[in-house]
Amino acid sequence: MADVLLVERRDRVAVLTLNRPDKLNALNQELHRALYDVFGELAGDESIGAIVVTGAGERAFSAGYDVRELEPLDEAETLMSNLRREPYWARIFDFPKPVVAALNGFTLGGGAMLALCADVRIGCRRTVFRVTAVPYLGVMATWNLPPLVGMGRAKEWLMTARPVEADEGLAAGLLNHVVPDDEVVAKAIEVAAAIAGHPPAALSELKRLIHDNAGRSLPDGAEAENSVMHHALAPKSTSELFAGFLASRGD
């Protein structure tokens, strides 16, 4: 594994650390590729039930795309660079296991996109979220920010490209928790570990249903959920269904 991405295992949680602190963990092609490869490997790893993604250092989760890498590209090269990134976001957003982002500082541009592709986001007082695409004649996060914070708020944040600090992000639903700076990774691991303790098949189907149901009517969403319960997750017996739950309680 490239040094730009560190991988640590904490029981059933894999902790991925973007490791370019001198560049505020900016996303270059090497780091993008490392993320893509690791998520691919972890998808089939039955020993891992959830993922935590964070950034090295004390300043940034990720300050976005590496501008120094992009600056010399001509029009055709810029298009190819953008096209290469598209599968990276899809792999993380559609990853079959829950992903928790520990936003330990600046979360800007491509770093904001990475955070939005996670299922749960933990912030701290250093967290600053900003989608910076519009000033650079681009668009970003139009599909995954509005479901989190509402269309009106998302339009304002994206159109003004202004920074959003932790308290506002928490109130808007962007962040699930805000904790002291030195506790953000520990809190993310705590949440991920709680998630990873549940049956992987149920977590995978739950995540898929939430994503798919965003475009469905309520009756269609209920029908899709019932179908999963009756088929994909159907137990052999009621005793089998509750055996794991009762065992976890000590009954």
TrEMBL record:
A molecular function (GO) term: isomerase activity
One Pfam family hit: ECH_1
Protein name: Enoyl-CoA hydratase/isomerase family protein
Family to which the UniProt record says this protein belongs: Belongs to the enoyl-CoA hydratase/isomerase family.
